[in-house]
Amino acid sequence: MTDSKPLSATALLIAKKQSVFRFIFLQILFVVIISIGIYSFTSSLHWYSFVLGASCSIFPSVYMAWRVFGYKGTRPAKDVMRAFYRGEAGKLVLTAVLLSLVFLLIKPLAAGSFFAGFGIAILSHWLSPVVLNK
Q1: What is the pLDDT of residue 132?
Q2: Is 133 helix (H, G, I), strand (E, B) or coil?
Q3: Residue 41: enclosing H or E segment and its boundaries?
């Protein structure tokens, strides 16, 4: 039986940061694999609509992870909570802006594929407990 000490605050922060960025990488990989399948079986219209939809979900997630975990070392709890609130607010605004820009600027767009990509990227968050617990 080994005597394991609890992780220090810095070591715990580094472990959580690595887990979050590993999850984002797996989320991107998941979308890439699905988009390759879409590209090989359907038209390029459905492929880029799917990728744009997934990107409208993934880029805001990357922004939030950067806002929350972009700092080195530990910070006071007040600063951590402020980073979470700013990150979440920025994520919501960025999602709305990206969705609006895609619908305004990208023509033609396969709406079904777009929302499928957006939904799959969001639903992949259900995998986060599995990934973050490792």
Answers
A1: 61
A2: coil
A3: helix 9-41
